[in-house]
């Protein structure tokens, strides 16, 4: 009897659950989507608090350690003794006997234990709160290059963390602008029809016919070189949003054409609701699950757009750091063959795009929980 009661109560909970509860139950079953969501949560946490998680100042130069490879984290010393506190070894410079290139070898006589919440280079969290406490680091006199250094001896681990703030935020801001434009113009086009629909659809067709990359490159090249970094950031965001809204606007138009004659729409009109209220409060929420999926899958395109423009030298420029700006330094074969750690920003881009795609697939499946 108890088992039957439990089954009945479980069935009752299922049939009495709200749409969001059903979506969450189905989303939890999509393991890849959960993994993608966790990865994105880690990345965005690191981007938001990049000053705290970085190991040192991103503009600080170590002239003795130019193109220094990533340091290995050790738990065992040269005698095979285990240490609970991980440590890194120092470097000693040498020359390759064949190529005469400068190389770095581990100096196991110099050990630098890694500590949590260690004091280091001063910074301002969000340019507001001054501090010098870093999540991990070594004490003064030691070196810690988890991702190696670049051609000026700057720490690549810290620079990648700072770059994630720009690259990840530009995707969200760009998609937000595209969402507003697509929902607004698509809603007007689908709800009113007539001349407004014809004008908006012709504009969309014109923009879609233009090849995306040349359009982005042309608009980005028009940005004055003497603009401050903040202006360039918003200009690149607007450029990426310029075409991104077209696809969403066409879908919103099609949905509203099919929904504007439904009973709940007519009931809202009879009740005296304004056209704007009907679109925003009744029509758009009726296919909100699709809009969420569309937003999730659009972010990677924005991130790739910024990375491509910055990689080509047409987007963000130094001293601003983004994944595209960092990859701009790895354009030649010599860098790829001799300093492969400079390609780490590309790995972050790949992981972020895959995580967003996994999350989007999970949300797409959860959007229809009755299947």
From TrEMBL:
Membrane topology: Multi-pass membrane protein
GO cellular component terms, semicolon-separated: plasma membrane
Similarity-based family: Belongs to the binding-protein-dependent transport system permease family.
Alphabetical list of InterPro entries matching this protein: MetI-like, MetI-like_sf, OppC_N
Broad class of the protein's primary localization: membrane
Name this polypeptide is given: ABC transporter permease
Keyword Transmembrane carried by entry: yes
Chain ranges passing through the membrane: 32-54, 166-191, 203-224, 230-252, 283-303, 340-359
Keywords carried by this UniProt record: Membrane, Transmembrane, Transmembrane helix, Transport
């Amino acid at each position: 009897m108890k088992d039957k009661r439990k089954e009945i109560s479980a069935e009752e909970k299922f049939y009495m659950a709200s749409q969001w509860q059903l979506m969450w139950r189905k989303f939890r079953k999509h393991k890849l989507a959960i993994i993608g969501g966790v990865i994105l949560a880690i990345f965005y946490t690191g981007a938001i608090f990049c000053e705290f998680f970085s190991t040192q100042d991103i503009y600080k130069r170590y002239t003795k350690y130019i193109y220094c490879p990533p340091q290995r984290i050790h738990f065992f010393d040269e005698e095979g003794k285990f240490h609970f506190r991980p440590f890194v070894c120092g470097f000693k410079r040498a020359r390759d006997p064949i190529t005469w290139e400068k190389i770095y070898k581990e100096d196991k006589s110099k050990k630098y234990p890694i500590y949590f919440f260690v004091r280091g280079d001063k910074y301002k969290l969000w340019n507001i709160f001054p501090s010098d406490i870093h999540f991990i680091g070594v004490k003064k006199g030691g070196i810690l290059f988890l991702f190696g250094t670049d051609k000026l001896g700057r720490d690549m681990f810290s620079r990648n963390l700072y770059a994630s703030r720009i690259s990840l935020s530009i995707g969200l801001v760009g998609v937000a602008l595209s969402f507003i434009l697509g929902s607004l113009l698509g809603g007007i086009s689908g709800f009113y029809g007539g001349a407004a629909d014809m004008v908006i659809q012709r504009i969309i067709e014109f923009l879609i016919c233009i090849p995306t990359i040349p359009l982005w490159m042309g608009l980005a090249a028009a940005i004055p070189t003497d603009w401050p970094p903040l202006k360039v950031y918003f200009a690149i965001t607007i450029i990426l949003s310029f075409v991104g809204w077209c696809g969403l606007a066409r879908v919103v138009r099609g949905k509203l054409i099919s929904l504007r004659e439904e009973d709940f729409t007519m009931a809202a009109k009879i009740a005296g609701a304004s056209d704007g209220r009907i679109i925003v409060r009744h029509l758009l929420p009726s296919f909100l699950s699709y809009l969420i999926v569309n937003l999730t899958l659009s972010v990677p395109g924005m991130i790739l757009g910024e990375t491509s423009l910055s990689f080509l030298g047409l987007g963000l420029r130094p001293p601003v750091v983004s994944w595209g700006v960092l990859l701009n330094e790895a354009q030649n074969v010599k860098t790829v063959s001799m300093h492969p750690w400079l390609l780490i920003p590309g790995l972050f881009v790949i992981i972020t795009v895959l995580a967003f795609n996994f999350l989007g697939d999970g949300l797409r499946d959860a959007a229809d929980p009755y299947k």
